[in-house]
Structure formats: structure tokens, C-alpha cells
Automatic annotation (TrEMBL):
It comes from Lupinus luteus. Residues 165-436 form the Neprosin PEP catalytic domain. Gene3D superfamilies: Outer-capsid protein sigma 3, large lobe (3.90.1320.10). Keywords: Signal. Residues 1-26 form the signal peptide. Pfam families: Neprosin, Neprosin_AP. PROSITE patterns: NEPROSIN_PEP_CD. Residues 145-165 are annotated as: Disordered. The keyword Ligase does not apply. This is Neprosin PEP catalytic domain-containing protein. The keyword DNA-binding does not apply. It comes from the Eukaryota. InterPro entries: Glutamic_endopeptidase (IPR053168), Neprosin (IPR004314), Neprosin_propep (IPR025521).
Amino acid sequence: MAAKLGYEKKLVLCFLLVLLVPFTFASRATINNGVSSQKLEVQKHLKNLNKPHVKSIKSPDGDIIDCVHVSNQPAFDHPELKSHKIQMIPNYHPEGKIFGESKVSSNSKPLTQLWHKNGRCPEGTIPVRRTKKDEILRASSIQNFGKKKQKSFPQPRSSKPLPDLITQSGHQHAIVYVEGDKYYGAKATINVWDPKIQQPNEFSLSQMWLLSGSFGQDLNSIEAGWQVSPDLYGDNNTRLFTYWTSDAYQATGCYNLLCSGFIQVNNDIALGASIYPLSNYGSSQYDISILVWKVPFHLANTLYLNHLCIIDPKEGNWWMQFGSEHVLGYWPGPLFSYLSESASMIEWGGEVVNSESDGQHTSTQMGSGHFPDEGFGKSSYFKNIQIVDANNKLRPPKDLGTFTEQDSCYNVKTGSANDWGNYFYYGGPGRNPNCP
């Protein structure tokens, strides 16, 4: 009898196995199909970003810089830019320079990036940092790769900041700002550091923001500076970056050339590539200068009507210059709504992500990782802060305001001097006895 029961149990087990095996294989097939589908999507995105190139340069930091023909860059994947005619030099410059006469002036030192040690890109091409598969896989999704999270902007209004700016977004700032006028550009010189990052999903950056629109769903922003972002680049190198959005970081825009938009014309400087050398605490200081500007419509229209420029002023391009001579390229006006005319606010300063991973404030550093009171050689700074006015002239901003969410973690201190113009020290260590 016992033997018979044992036999029946075996029959039942076999029957259940027969029923379960197809489901097991089906589940594995579903998983495999999911993995296969993701692989295909990643490969497709890589192919879209990494354009055919005429030359590749291996940088000492592990980057690969591809020299891509200027007409084949990612910008022209944008539906608004399919028939766009590239403008190789600005029509009008706020410093009164004439481009194209000489590459580098005799009294300027060439700006360097690490990849320059192993080569340069030829004329007619632009240097594009090659995107790696691992970089895309680190993003929460392919769609979010190369994008900032929403509400990653400081909101220094007279009214209190939106509650979720601090409690939910996890972004903290130490900035100066100006508002209340029409601004056609901004400039600053920023010293460059290698702040320590606590968590790979955090970053530290120092930049300029040119903003227009409301701080809700339709904010337009153009941004440029330096950043350390392990999540985006896979290392802790300090890198030159740009960013743009026309809908408050929701769907449009990205870092550098990781989506269509910014049109690069310069063959010397690679967006997203490492900056070299960097400042040292209590020792040598190194800085970069960034200028972003557009020609006011009334001036552009005059030039156009007098046949002094061939570009339709309705284009409203926002140009970016790195250093004294490197005009990198421009954001075409059609990318934007509010910024197609002018900016309504300019901000300069630092930003970090505070993920509070262990229930405490992050120890991710901003700037040099030291507070502004320590001064030159120890604190990070912005100097010669300027705006571009309606006459396309650079001038010091009036009525600078300051803003931080938690000044015991990161702070800002302004000043002025003959050789530095309007300046400020900023930054901090993050977590410390006063910043729990």
C-alpha cells in the first residue's frame, strides 16, 4: 500500500513538472527577449550618438575622441535643424573681435584638454567624445541618458523656493544672480577643481545659467561650466560641459552633444572632455573663461538689412566661447521659446546632488570643498562676472543677489576689485558638524 502511494506521488510530481516546464521556458524566453531588446536599443542609441569619423584619438584618461565632419554632428538629427545652414563664425561679438583673421593671439596661452597630448582634429571636423555602452546602461533609461533631473535649477526668488526644490530634488546650490532686465549673454572666469564625490549617482558642478520663462513647466535654460559626474562619465575627472532645455528639464535638451541641438564649429575643444591642469589647495590656481551671448534682435536686423551679415536675425543663435579665442559653436534660436529673444535671469555658481544615502547630508564637495572665507588659493571663485546688454556690450551686472539652500553646507561671498571686477567665492565640504 505504501509503495502504491509513493508511486502515485511520483506521478503527481511528474505531471506538475510537465505543466511547469513550458512556463519556465516561456519566462526565460521573456527575460531573454527583454535583455535582447534592451541590447538592440542601446546599440541603436550608440550608433546614433557615435557618428562616422575621419580620425580617432585615444586620450590618456581613457576617453576616445572622434573627429567627426562638422556637417555630420548629432545636432542635425533635430527635426528643426534638418535644413539648417551652419554659421561658422559669429556676425557680431560683444568684445568687438573680428574672427577668422588669426587662430590664436600672440599673448594668449592655448587652452588644453588631456586628449590634446595625443593629437588634434583636422580642419572641417569637430572633436566628439565617444559614448560608451556602460555610460548608457548606468542611466535609469535610454531616454534619460545625458539629461539632468527636473528641478535641478536654483530658484532665488523673493518668495520662498518651492518646497520640493530642497526636500525632493536633492540639488543644492551656492550662487549669485541678477534679474529684472533683458540679458543677451553672460561671462565669467572660473577656477577649476576636482571636488570629491560621495556617491556615484551624485555630481558637483560650477556653471553659468541663462534662464527665461517660468520656474514651472516651460523654463528655458542654457548652461556651461565644469563638472565631476561619475554617473555620466564613469570617472571622477573634471570636465567641460554644456546643457540646454526648453521645458524645465522634462523632455528636451541634454549635456554636451548627447542629443541633437548644440551646433559645434570648433575643432580644438571637445565638450565633455577632461580639463587640464587643475587648481591645487594652497598652490597653483587654474581657471577657464566662458562667454555665452546672442546679438540683440534690433542690432542683428540692422546688420542684416545693411548686408553686413548673411544670417537671418530671426535665427537668434546663442554663441559660446571658451577662453579668449575658442568660439565653440551655438544653440540655434528655434530650440527655444522664451530664450529666442533674451534671458530674464543670469545665475553663476555651484550645484551638487545631495542624495542623503546614509540618512545624513552628503559629503560631496562643491568647488574646492572649502568655504568662501578661506579666500584665494583655497576657495573656489568666479571672477570678472559680466552680462551682455541690449547694446551688445559687456558690463558688470547691477544688484547681484546671493542664494543658498543651506549655508552651513555650502556658502557664497561676493566682492569687487579692480583686477577681478565683480567676483565671489563659493562652495563648501557638504557634511560637517554644522551640516548634519
